[in-house]
Design a protein that fits this description.
The complex is a heterodimer of chains A (401) and B (81). Chain A is 34% helix and 19% strand. By secondary structure, chain A is an alpha/beta fold. Chain A folds into 2 domains: 235 residues, Thiolase/Chalcone synthase (Peroxisomal Thiolase, Chain A, domain 1, 3-Layer(aba) Sandwich), CATH 3.40.47; 158 residues, 3-Layer(aba) Sandwich (Peroxisomal Thiolase, Chain A, domain 1). In chain A, the strands form 2 sheets. In chain A, strands 1, 2, 3, 4, 5, 6, 7, 8, 9, 12 and 13 form an 11-stranded mixed beta sheet that branches. In chain A, strands 10-11 form a two-stranded antiparallel sheet. In chain A, helix 1 crosses helix 13 and helix 3 packs across helix 6. Chain A starts with 5 loop residues before the first strand and ends with a strand. With 81 residues, chain B is an all-alpha fold. Chain B has one domain: ACP-like (Non-ribosomal Peptide Synthetase Peptidyl Carrier Protein, Chain A). In chain B, helix 1 crosses helix 2 and helix 1 packs across helix 4. In chain B, 26% of the residues are buried. The model of chain B has no long low-confidence stretch (mean pLDDT 90). Classes of the chains: A alpha/beta (401), B mainly alpha (81). The interface between A and B is medium-sized, with 13 and 11 residues.
């Protein structure tokens, strides 16, 4: 059977660095940070730029962010209000870590304070984790496979992987995919703080010896994936390819990663095998790099296990150094950041990295962005890692021309 | 409670509710249909809740099926209050 290739034809993002995928790429590459006061909100995002008042109140903030990111991605793909495929051949797969937590919290407060009669009928449809996928499908008239993906901080990457597989299997010719999260809420703040997962200093400095936890962020990333031949036939501009996907589970602990990074290494190896490439073919690695003591150590070990000596030669940087941890959106936003970095032949920096930690001795791209070293005619292949509470590991191999 | 419920008061509350749902106030009238105002079943569920809270009138299931216009909703609430 002919292998169906998957291309990326459009990207969109709303992040703490601003509205727009290219805004994220340019600002991160220039060394800007979206972290302020120990958190990373999407301060420049106004839902009413994309949604009517009625649409906005029918959507939790995580869905609002997804709608804005998807609008950009769909326009970027040149879909311009009209689908290039039969609607039932276009799917929608959107990841989230938690879903509409803000909606949950405000309605629970009403329930306790004023009783069941005060709970909005919109509470469940807004908080459900698949609300992003359902809302986007409705908005763009997508009648193919449609569902949410829930795997904590790996959700965005698992969604892209599931979308690529959906196209490869022939269940759809195109899928609008990505991830979204908006949990800068009292409950999530308190819970992550109680877990001692968030940084007390409010600094996101992945792989640095002083790292003390992640910085909570919010945002959304969306990608339009299409079957390559169909995309070429319609004359689409090809941004890149989803070449490989690997997904595994640690089955080790509810929150802590396998300390040796074995599950993560298996995911990376699976993605490389799926792409049919060797470790040495990678020219850039976009790390999960949360800035937690545990993740950055186990991820470094996983990269060494999976890539061998090549791990020391490839630049490894973390988008979270600039925008904090976007949780269920992280994998999607970072896949986009990876693609745009590869396209511009640049490794954006791991901001705030200054002190080496014992054993964390890869090239984390400190200080400032650096041009990618490419041999003549070398393929431009990158790896994007995402890991989540629950032991989820997802790795994507992406390529640009 | 029912002694204080006037049609004017109900109209005011219904209009406020419709506006909060995102409907365009310039289109409000007793004759306007919910379809014209893009008010759907989820909005009517919220309107039922508001009617119950403001006037103690629960509107459930079959109650809202029969109403098509803003005037229908106002009359139903007034008649129950």
């Amino acid at each position: 059977m002919m292998v169906r290739e998957v291309v990326v034809t459009g990207v969109g993002a709303v992040t703490p660095l601003g509205v727009g995928a290219r805004t994220l790429h340019e600002r991160w590459t220039s060394g800007a940070s979206g972290i302020t006061g120990g958190e990373a909100p999407c301060a420049e995002f106004d839902p009413l730029d994309t949604l009517t008042r009625k649409e906005a109140r029918r959507a939790d903030r995580f869905t609002q962010l997804a709608v804005a990111a998807a609008a950009e991605a769909v326009a970027d793909a040149g879909w311009d209000g009209e689908l290039p495929y039969a609607p039932d051949r276009v799917g929608c797969i959107i990841g989230t870590g938690i879903g509409g937590l803000g909606t949950f919290e405000s309605n629970h407060e009403e329930l306790l304070g004023r009783g069941p009669g005060a709970v909005s009928p919109l509470s469940v449809p807004l908080m459900m984790g698949n609300a992003g996928a359902g809302t986007l499908a409705m908005r763009h008239g997508l009648l193919g496979p449609c569902f949410g993906v829930v795997s904590a901080c790996a959700a965005g990457a698992n969604a892209i992987g599931a979308a690529a597989r959906t196209i490869q299997a022939g269940d759809a010719d195109a899928v609008l995919t990505g991830g979204s999260e908006a949990v800068l809420t009292p409950l999530a703040r308190a819970s992550f703080a109680a877990l001692d997962a968030v940084s007390r200093t409010g600094e996101s400095r992945p792989f640095d010896a002083r790292r003390d936890g992640f910085v909570m962020g919010e945002g959304a990333g969306a990608l339009v994936l299409e079957e390559a031949q169909a995309a070429q036939a319609r004359g689409a501009r090809i941004l890149g390819w989803v070449r490989g996907y690997g997904a595994t589970c640690d089955a080790h602990h509810l929150t802590a990663p396998d300390p040796r990074g074995a599950g993560a290494a298996r995911a990376i190896l699976a993605a490389l095998a799926d792409a049919g490439i060797e470790a040495g073919d990678l020219v850039y690695v976009n790390a999960h790099g949360t800035s937690t003591p545990l993740n950055d150590r186990s991820e470094t070990l996983a990269l060494k296990t999976a890539l061998g000596d090549d791990a020391y030669a490839v630049p490894v940087s973390s988008t979270k150094s600039a925008i904090g941890h976007l949780l269920g959106a992280a994998g999607a936003v970072e896949a986009i950041a990876t693609l745009l970095a590869l396209r511009d032949r640049v490794a954006p920096p791991t901001l705030g990295w200054a002190e080496e930690d014992e054993g964390l001795d890869l090239d984390y791209v400190p200080d400032s962005a650096r041009p990618l070293a490419l041999a003549d005619g070398e393929r431009v292949l990158g790896l994007s890692n995402s890991f989540g509470f629950g032991g989820h590991n997802a790795a994507l191999v992406l390529e640009t021309v | 409670m029912s002694t204080t419920v006037t049609a004017e008061r109900v109209e005011q509350v219904v209009y406020q509710a419709l506006e909060s749902f995102g409907a365009d106030p310039s289109e409000f009238s007793r004759e306007a249909t919910f379809e014209q105002l893009d008010v759907d079943s989820l909005d009517l569920a919220e309107l039922s809740q508001i009617a119950e809270e403001e006037f103690g009138v629960p509107l459930k299931g079959d109650d809202v099926k029969g109403i098509r216009t803003v005037g229908d909703a106002i009359d139903l609430i007034v008649s129950r209050a």
